[in-house]
Amino acid sequence: MIWRGEDVAKYVEGKVKVNPNGIDLGVAEIWKIDENGEIEINKDIRKIEPKKKKINPSGDYWILERGVYEVRIANKVTIPKNAVGLLLPRSTFNRLGIIKSETALWDSGYSGHGTQTVFVTVKKAKIHIDESWFQLIFLDAREVRKTYQGFYQNEVIGDNRN
């Protein structure tokens, strides 16, 4: 069962827009991923070369050229023991040429400022810094005995784990 938006909002810090079945979230940081980069994933190793390049806003806007980006969620999210989270793209972004990679499941007990990968398919995207990018929903889950304790637990703004 999908949770009501007002119930999801109880597990998210900061200002959010509450919807009937979830909440809208914005972005705090954006990192450009070099499309010619190379990655290594091996147990506790998670790295990409060359390293991602931080993109700073230009005035009140994020200006993104065509390419792939990692975006850091502005709000700290904590997934309760009896739920899992999914972060979906706002339909406006899909309609206008920004594609979000399929979300990973946000496990019970995860806490932090998560990230998502997006692909800008057009020459340039100009997005206001206060715009919501994603919709977070919670789905019911049997309460777990052991919560998420993985590599990305407690992600924070300014944390670029690559």
Question: What are the defining features of this structure?
Answer:
single chain; 162 residues; mainly beta; Deoxyuridine 5'-Triphosphate Nucleotidohydrolase, Chain A; 5-stranded antiparallel β-sheet
Q: Beta-sheet strand percentage?
A: over 45%
CATH superfamily heading: Deoxyuridine triphosphatase (dUTPase)
Name of the top-level CATH class: Mainly Beta
The overall number of domains is 1
The side-by-side strand order for the widest beta sheet comes to: 6-3-7-12-10
CATH topology: Deoxyuridine 5'-Triphosphate Nucleotidohydrolase, Chain A
Indicate the percent of residues in helices: under 10%
* Low-confidence segments: none
Instruction: Output mean pLDDT.
Output: 89
Please give the CATH architecture: Distorted Sandwich
Rg calc = 16 Å
Distance between the ends = 35 Å
Shape verdict: globular
Structural class: mainly beta
Order of helices and strands: HEEEEEEEEEHEEEE
Main sheet characteristics? 5 strands, antiparallel
Total strands? 13
Number of helices: 2
